[in-house]
Structures are given as C-alpha cells and as structure tokens.
C-alpha cells in the first residue's frame, strides 16, 4: 500500500510517516511527540493490530483498512482542542464524499431515517456513518509536553476493505457499499480535506461555523435519542449541540440536558428503550 499526502496537505507543510503494519498509529505519534517532533505529522497504515477506540475499546484495522493519526503540537487550550474531533469528522465526511460522490443512503440500520441525499452522516461525538452503520471512528488523545506545549493526536480509523462482524452495533465498509477505493486514496483525500477544515476552525475561533456544518450532517438530529451516561439513560429528542460541543437532549418532562460524553442510540432503538 502506497500512501502520499494530498497536494494541499504537502503545500501546507504537513509530513507523513507511513507503515505497512504497526501496532498503533496513535502510540507512534505520541512517541514521536515526546521525542520532540514539531507536529503536523500524519502517521498512517493499512494494518494496525493494537488500535483503540474510545473508552478503551479495540478498533480493528485489518489489512486494507485505514488507520491514520495526526499529530499536532503547540500551545493550545484543551477545551478548544476537544472540538478538533468535530473538525476531523467534517474533513473525513468531505473526503469520503469526494471519493464516492454518487453514494446516497436511505433507511438507517438502527431504524432511524437518514435525510434524503445525505451521503455520510456524523454521529456524536466522533463517528462517521453510512446508512446508519458505522464506517469510521475518531479518537482524540492529548499529552502535556515540556515547554508549555501540548501534543494532540487525532486518531482516525476507516473501514475501507472490511467491516468488523463481532461488534454490538451495525458496521459497514467502503467495499460493502460497493465503493472501489483503497486506503491510500482515502488518506490522500482526507489529508487535503483536513487542511480546509482546520483553517475553518482557526484555533477555535471558527468553532461556530464548524458546529453549524457539523449539525447539517448530524445523524439523528430532531429524532428520538437515548444516551447512556454511566448507569443513567437520558431519553428524549436530539435537539442540537451547544457551544461547547455537548449533545443537547430535550426530554418529555421539558428539560434540556447537555451531555458531554455518553453512548448514543437513535430512532427505533431509542424509542424501544433498548441501548444494548
């Protein structure tokens, strides 16, 4: 598998470290940050065996799928950095739409109806869906470094050639969707799309525009939602994201509850009261 940066990414000064196989691209990015790497570095592979998702879960990257981590280093406020997950989601959605411009979705696999014409949807906080099934996941990690700077690693895993079968949620891949693209093509498009979306974010100053664009592609917006927050389940309507990126749920009791982290289920699954 050959990986190259997109033309816009190369022109913007991004660098690339590509591996045929690696344990974890996130781990490699953090090791390099600790060793003094200045950032703007993509670490990519088409096979990783120790990838991880949110909440300590394993993220499977069999041969042919894309595992990519972007290392950014600098003085940054963690609150602002947390919104980079939304930036990455938009960039990946942009990239996938370029690769598969004719793809459209209909009814989501968990029972929710996808808006007409939506190609790829963004599921809060950091997943990309196609037809209601998980196509990609994004995870952020950060670490304080000497000199008052912070390393931010944005890990992105895309099911390109295969989708997992032993997971408790619907999953899909580009191959499942009939899209003929390899991990190298997806990465090149992603690296260029990131440049545009990162400029829009502008150190957090463009967060309002990022939020508006994210909501335009949000899965389940305006529909039934159930969010597991620890041992508690919050049910209601997915109303919006607040300015901090929290999911806002309007309950039948008239409450508006802002949720910073949780497991989200939409549509029929949420209405039936099932979140397993």
Automatic annotation (TrEMBL):
InterPro entries: aa-tRNA-synth_II/BPL/LPL (IPR045864), Biotin_CoA_COase_ligase (IPR004408), BPL_C (IPR003142), BPL_LPL_catalytic (IPR004143), Transcriptional_repressor_C (IPR008988)
Name of this chain's protein: biotin--[biotin carboxyl-carrier protein] ligase
Lineage start: Bacteria, Pseudomonadati, Pseudomonadota, Alphaproteobacteria, Hyphomicrobiales
Domain BPL/LPL catalytic: 15-202
Family matches, as SUPFAM superfamilies: C-terminal domain of transcriptional repressors, Class II aaRS and biotin synthetases
A GO molecular-function descriptor: ATP binding
UniProt EC number: 6.3.4.15
Gene3D superfamilies recorded: 2.30.30.100, Bira Bifunctional Protein, Domain 2
Keywords: ATP-binding, Biotin, Ligase, Nucleotide-binding
PROSITE patterns per the UniProt record, alphabetical: BPL_LPL_CATALYTIC
GO cellular component, as recorded: cytoplasm
Enzyme's top EC category: ligase
Keyword ATP-binding: yes
Catalysed reactions, semicolon-separated: biotin + L-lysyl-[protein] + ATP = N(6)-biotinyl-L-lysyl-[protein] + AMP + diphosphate + H(+)
Cross-referenced Pfam families: BPL_C (PF02237), BPL_LplA_LipB (PF03099)
